[in-house]
Amino acid sequence: MKKDEELEPEVRRIAREKGTEAPFTGKYWDAHEKGVYTCTICGTELFSSDTKFDSGTGWPSFTEPVNLEHVILKEDTAGGMQRTEVVCKTCGAHLGHVFNDGPSEKGGKRFCINSACLELRKTEE
Predict the structure, then answer these.
(1) What order do you get walking across the sheet with 83-88 strand by strand?
(2) What percent of the chain stands above pLDDT 90?
(3) Is 4-122 assigned to CATH 2.170.150.20?
(4) What residues pair up with 120 in beta bridges, in sequence order?
(5) Interval 20-73: pLDDT, tens
(6) What is the DSSP string of the chain?
(7) Phi, psi of 49 (to 5 degrees)
(8) Of these residues, 39, 42, 88, 112, which one is catalytic?
(9) Is 117 a catalytic residue?
């Protein structure tokens, strides 16, 4: 697990200070490689490329985590908004938010995740 002092400033701002990267700027918003997305801080497996979809928002979007046991969903009312925050259960990193506007045929959830909090462990196609 990386220590906070070892994190790049953008990762620290997002993961530890609950920031958000600008849309269409993260390294994974338009990625199409196959693999598993892990937490950039602790390496916990979070999302599969099999559940990634283009939400048109400019952030990596997934229909579900690899395992719900790997994330914590918390009420987030910051900025006067009503949202559900997604947090890495292992290290407490803020990952993004989950919304109820995902593909209905896949459960209707959209896990909107900051690229800065993810590392893609590629698999062979």
Answers:
(1) 52-53, 61-62, 110-113, 94-99, 83-88, 71-76
(2) 87
(3) yes
(4) 37
(5) 999 999 999 999 999 999 999 999 999 999 999 999 999 999 999 999 999 999
(6) ---GGGS-HHHHHHHTT---PPTT-STTTT----EEEEETTT--EEEEGGGEE--SSSS-EESS-S-GGGEEEEEE-GGG--EEEEEETTT--EEEEEES-S-GGGTS-EEEE-GGGEEEEE---
(7) -60, -20
(8) 112
(9) no
Residue given tokens 């600008």 in the structure block:
22
Length of the chain: 125
Token representation of residue 63: 């229909």
pTM: 0.93
Tokens of 19: 């920031």
Using CA atoms, how far apart are residues 44 and 32, in angstroms rounded to an integer?
A: 20
